[in-house]
Known about the structure:
Layout: E1 6-8, E2 29-31, E3 41-45, H1 47-52, H2 57-61, H3 63-69, E4 73-75, E5 81-83, E6 87-89, E7 92-94, E8 102-109, E9 115-121, E10 136-137, H4 138-154, E11 160-172, E12 176-186, H5 192-200, H6 204-218, H7 228-250, E13 252-253, E14 275-276, H8 300-319, H9 323-352, H10 363-379, H11 384-393, H12 403-406, H13 412-427, H14 433-441, H15 451-464, H16 470-478
Parallel strand pairs: 1-4
Antiparallel strand pairs: 2-5, 3-11, 6-7, 8-9, 9-12, 10-12, 11-12, 13-14
Bound molecules: adenosine monophosphate and magnesium ion.
Amino acid sequence: MPIALNRAPDAAPVPPFEHSYAGLPGHFYAEIPPTPVREPTLLRLNQALAAELGLDADWLAGADGVAMLAGNRLPDRVRPIAMAYAGHQFGNFVPSLGDGRAILLGEVNDRQGRRRDVQLKGAGRTPFSRSGDGRAALGPVLREYILGEAMQGLGIPTTRALAMVATGEPVFRDAAEPGAILTRVAASHIRVGTFEYFARRGDREAVQRLADYLIARHYPELAEDDNPYAALIAAVAARQGELIARWLLVGFIHGVMNTDNMALSGETIDYGPCAFMDAYDPNQVYSSIDRYGRYAYGQQPSIGLWNLTQLANSLLTLLDDDPEQAKTKARSALDAYGKAFEPAYYGGLRAKLGLLDTQQSDKSADDELVTELLGRMAQHRADFTNTFRLLSDADPDAPATLEPVRALFGKPDAFDEWTTRWRTRLAAQQEPNAERQARMRARNPAYIPRNHRVQEVITAAVERGDLAPLEPLLTVVSRPYEEHPDLIDYRRPPEEHEVVRQTFCGT
Ligand code: AMP
Ligand code: MG
């Protein structure tokens, strides 16, 4: 049982939490306070995010703030809840998952008036914990902090970490590890699995309440639609299609795209065994628990649609009284997924190669040019990030500038054949080379959080209590399209002995 909480009367800089989700019916969540920890220490406060949220960074970093971020002492304005949800895990339905180690403190309205959830991850057991300890280990907390900031830097919708706190307590995974709590900020925490939870219980009223809440919070323009729930499926599908396209364009592998890990806001959520790939390989898998490659890099688009199909199934009873009609409407709403994914992905790839879409350009020929390069990259294990970034810096009319890209291919001839075609295609654009380069650099990051660098941060922190390697990595991944001459080594792919072959979810 959690220890009783000390309550402090709220002072002015306390975050002005609101509780719209807790205003939903009682079976949507469990009211549960965090379990206090022995010795909280603030490891890092995300100053930029605190400012974006309009929160007082000095208060957060002070005694009362850290006590809140550790779950030890909550301001009066907090109303802690754990959310109920179900989910398909690796294709198998689990009717009750829920926040087993996450506790929502409340919502704040950020500087732009957007409602954002503030949640403690690793804050202790809840009624949804099953056999888990409700805690998080420092390693996965660091990974989530870094990858969230990297996604933000890349311009991809994501949840982010406001803070990391060490608990001063061990957690027991394969071995004892230092415990930590991450404060997660999300547009919301409603997942495909949240709908599945109520739908599987036949609770149509709850499904409708949740759908109405989701529309009001994230898709207000749909409220007046003739069939708002079909429109909701289509709108969620479109955001997901675009999101997954953007993952592919930077080489991101989520690693555990279960339906409980897909947020309906369109943000990337639940950074577990995720990773950015080094060498391009559509079959790349890092997650230690993904034994059959269900969530491999190149599987992500089809898994996205599979998950959305589970969402549509959960909403069927709201679409039409006639079950056949409802299915027809669901299917046509899901078309929005491909309609968003295809142009975002192929258009994104064309842009990565500097190809302008014009009246004269032949999109299908351009797509073939792109696919041809990707095929050669896969065959010759070229580094994904560096291939595109070094192409951005090259001038196809000056062969010497192509040397660095050539060198990335196990067999450089394979690249030479392709460059001739790229050069001809670019020449047709009649655009100054510098302009093309600038456009390409804005699409092709120089820096990603490479696995061996993330691992280096985790090892230093966990084994030596040394957080120093975190800062340079955050510097480059927060502004990944810029050059950081002092930190150029962060662009380097791993040496053979540095390669990280597996990542772990740490639950
Ligand atoms: P995840 O793999 O992190 O998406 O979690 C899947 C489910 O397991 C969710 O219901 C989590 O709340 C729960 N869970 C994960 N880790 C723990 C833990 N250490 N203690 C309790 N529940 C957990
Ligand atoms: Mg999860």
